[in-house]
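User: quick one
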Amino acid sequence: MKTNKPFPKNADYVIIGGGISGVSIAWHLAKKGAKNIVLIEQKHLSWGATGRCGAGIRQQWGTEANCLLAKKSIEFFEKAQETLEYDGNVEFKQEGYLIVGTNAEEDAQFKKNVALQNSLDIPARMLSPQEAKEIVPHLNLEGVTSATFCPTDGHLNPFTTTDAFYKAAKREGVDFYTYTTVKDIITEDDAIKAVVTDKGTVETNVVINAAGGFAKQIGEMAGVDIPVHSQNREILVTEPIEKIQGPMVISFSRNIYCQQTPHGAFIMGRGDKRAPGYSMESTHTFLDEMAKTVTKLLPPIGELRVIRQWGGLYNFSPDSQPIISDAKDVKGFYMACGFSGHGFMLAPMTGLLLSEMILGEEPSLPVENLLLSRFEGKDIKDVETSVV
Amino acid sequence: MKPEDVIICRCSDVTLKDIYDLFEQGYETFEELKRVARVGMGPCQANTCGKMVQWEIAKYFGKPLDEVEFHNMRPFTLGVKLNAIKEASDDEDE
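Assistant: Done. Structure below.
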């Protein structure tokens, strides 16, 4: 992204990472009146996990923190096009997520999840396999034992949604420096002093780590140990066809998510047990497993041609819930990471909560279960298991 | 020909004028253009528009062509049906 300004000597806030979390934090901070905000991105906006994600937004979670973050985020997304005064199209589609289960253990977990979701006013419901088929007629029910459906879940285009936040933040005065790499973070007496990049050094008292798959390294630069790890997750897209599927279909036991975007293409992905790391390679193994899984669950999709495949980094936290937090030991260091594959859909609340935290305002949602300090010397409980 | 009459990405129906407008807004690389205009995201995977966009970037910003980064190449080169991938994989497993 072109900027005519030379790299700044100082800033009040430096955000590291030009994915959805970074641009949302930038916009929320600026909207609240904060000035001298600088965002640094090593490549172009949405180069990392945001631009590589499955483009889904859902509220069907197994922990209260994730449910609330997701519900409030969808409320934002419902009006995002207008709120951000975007001249493009964020391609918001609200036709639900259909989650299918294939064993008794999953059925029991679904019941618990739906009860939790309903207690938080998320309109999810349990379905019989037959009812699921009425929503997605090409669903193959062989082996399917139950399903849940939430009609207000859906889709957004990650590129244009990021672009919408970017343009809105830019209008509010945020300065963006893309193709700029952070090399070091200088601290003094346990407080943030400056950020060193390949374009120059910017003095600041506040750094916000929104570096996605690379959040751990950014933490290390500031002397903050963040218990996250990254892992490559692969995904593919097909040629576009006329609309045949409304909701995103996912299954944790079958290891698949698959949706048709408003543009007509099908996007699908799955995870595997590979080692943590930073590779974003595409593999033959993924293609084989993906083809087997999708043709079994959604047979007509087998006739579609794959046109592209890629990988991206999930940044996992120990309980698969986000870390939206300050750092107790380093004054002025904040982070939004560990989203465990769901940072895109939670970004509006990430931006709101972190800007409130930074500006010393009362948080809009309880944040105890989001803080870094929740991992200190405690057993990890309340783990999110609804992850593909 | 007028820039609005020149189709530069046939898969996603992007004109030369669309590209010029994005240049003016500050989108300078193929990867940035791709993400807001879908240029290069269709079935041909930039095999048609990739070099043309690279050339337009060079001309517009007055850079030598070899200094303009080429688009990111990803599999596939040609579309392949998921059923065909599954069948090939089943054959390997036997």
